[in-house]
TrEMBL record:
Transmembrane helix keyword on record: yes
Keywords: Membrane, Transmembrane, Transmembrane helix
Residue stretches making up the Aerotolerance regulator N-terminal domain: 1-76
Domain of life: Bacteria
Membrane-spanning ranges: 6-24, 56-78
Species name: Mucilaginibacter boryungensis
The keyword Transmembrane helix appears for this protein: yes
Protein name: BatA domain-containing protein
Amino acid sequence: MILTTPIWLFALAAISIPVVIHLWNIRPGKTLKVGSIALFTESSPKSSRSFKLMDLLLLLLRCVLLGLLALILATPFWQKQLTTSKAKGWVLIPEGNYSYVKQHYKADLDFYASKGYEYHVFNPSFAKLDTAAVGKTKSDTISDDHLNYWQLVNQLNNTVSPNTPVALFTPNSLSHFSGEKPATSLSLNWHTYTPADSVDTWLAGAWLKANGDIRVVQGTSTPSGTIYQYNDIKNGGQTGSNYQIGVEHGTPVVSFKNSKIAVDTVTKRIAVYADKNALDANYLKAALDAVAQLSQRKTVIRIYNQPEAIPAGQSWLFWLSEKPIEQAIIEKNSNVFCYQGRQAFSVNSWMSNADSYTIKQGLSKIALYKTTSQSPFADAIWTDGFGNGILKKESGKTNVYRFFSRFNPAWNDLVWSEEFPKWLMQLMNTQSFNTIGHDRRALSADQIKPAYVTGTNKLITTPRTAIDLSHYLWLALMVVFFTERWLAHKNKQVLANG
């Protein structure tokens, strides 16, 4: 048995409470009737107490009740070793993709079927599928499951024996892969394919310009990447436009095909806290002005020298100080970009705004001379030539971007590059773009396949399944509780009758 949160076992100390209550049994003295107390001499008052266990069954039930409650809070699971399957191997297919896989990989499926492979659904249950039913599937109803396929492979390591070959058929969509690649000892043959709906066009954003026009951002996502196209709808008309304009609940709305988005009429407010880095602030201010001119969004940019002078509710706050930013200041703004670290490391490298998946979008490389970090990050937005993170994002109610360099020519050539406004525009504008459910970027087979562990480092796993014991413990808890209440009520009636 394994416990998910074993710290709750400290709650077992509560068992001492009913034990102390039962031991501390104060028995009242008896009254003796006599004819006269004239011959009795005065004595000092005495009280008697006796420690004696009463109602042992009731005490036991109360202790068991508290013990069961502590065990439930610890979330226990029972690990059961799976019996070795007689199947020669496994074929795993995501739910809703059966007919597509059958259509494009018929020869492979026929081969695996001839070898006696079992069909299983590729989700956390790994439920067995009826081979005949899969063969008769004519159409798919593909659901947007948002499953992380790398996490499922990690679970598969503890479900299938390393000696059982596994054939896996999945889409290569980027949305199904995040985090670190898994390591596996399985004999895994991973087939990937591009889904049929591999191109998506939608309205990613819309805002009101200073002259009253509406700027619309149309996104197009393909397996090779995502691009954004900017179009303007003239104030007072939509001649030659493919967009439809309407008003819903007092807010202008732009429609295009099956996509609809509200027009942002709020002015973007950007604050820059310079502290002692006035030179950095001037370079950043110039780049932000260029971004505002390119995006044509109503924007107010100001530089502040005192933190208390920064108004709350900023769209972006650039904290260009080596002093740590207070959490209270972070919570007052929507996005915070802050310098991170003080100790500078000299490097001879370059920095790129390409993430680990879309290399083609970050062909530009900026010379890097100094950094305050020499560690890689799983989800770095900007990286150096060694793969170490230069800029990382912490998502939350306030998005916090931690920059491990400086906007200074002594640290890098970013502030002198024409790419500087482009990088900032990509960073700031994409946060307001609607991309959920529209990302069609794809990974290559080499990027998807996990790391294989062989030889002395091979992962030796025994197929096991975890059974949640909480349901059984809750049932036992209810039985013990009602038994304890019935017994306590019964004992009370006996004392009253006595």
